From TrEMBL:
CDD domains: NAT_SF. This is Acetyltransferase, GNAT family. Residues 1-98 form the N-acetyltransferase domain. One of its GO terms (molecular function) is N-acetyltransferase activity. Keywords: Transferase. InterPro entries: Acyl_CoA_acyltransferase, GNAT_dom, NAT_camello-type. It comes from the Bacteria. It holds the Pfam family Acetyltransf_7. Gene3D superfamilies: 3.40.630.30.
């Protein structure tokens, strides 16, 4: 979470699926945009994922492909994701089929 003067400005979550994490629900309030909060939230999520032993993060997005590309995420084929990722609610039904899939390697194999 990102807060300023007690106001919630941003959130992000990582859902562990084996040794892969699903980066989800990254949201920054309009009042918090342009301050680096999104980047800080993603960096914290990546550090949290590494500390938990996750080797890779994947995500779906319709609107933030350029944002994630600038942070080292690369396009991935949705159908190539492991079963434990494809079975999540985000992949099955919450995110539209038009959402692009992105992936980032976090550490040693």
């Amino acid at each position: 979470m990102a807060e300023l003067d007690g106001a919630l400005l941003g959130v992000v979550a990582v859902q562990a699926c084996g040794d892969i994490g699903l980066l989800r629900s990254l949201t920054v309030d309009a009042n918090g945009r342009g301050r680096g909060l999104g980047q800080a939230l993603v960096e914290r999520a990546e550090a949290h994922a590494r500390a938990r032993g996750l080797l890779r993060l994947v995500l779906l997005t319709e609107t933030a492909a350029a944002f994630f590309s600038r942070r080292g995420y690369v396009p991935a084929e949705r159908g190539d994701m492991p079963a434990q990722i494809q079975s999540t609610a985000q992949f099955r039904s919450l995110c539209p089929a038009t959402a692009s899939c992105w992936s980032k390697h976090l550490g040693p194999p």
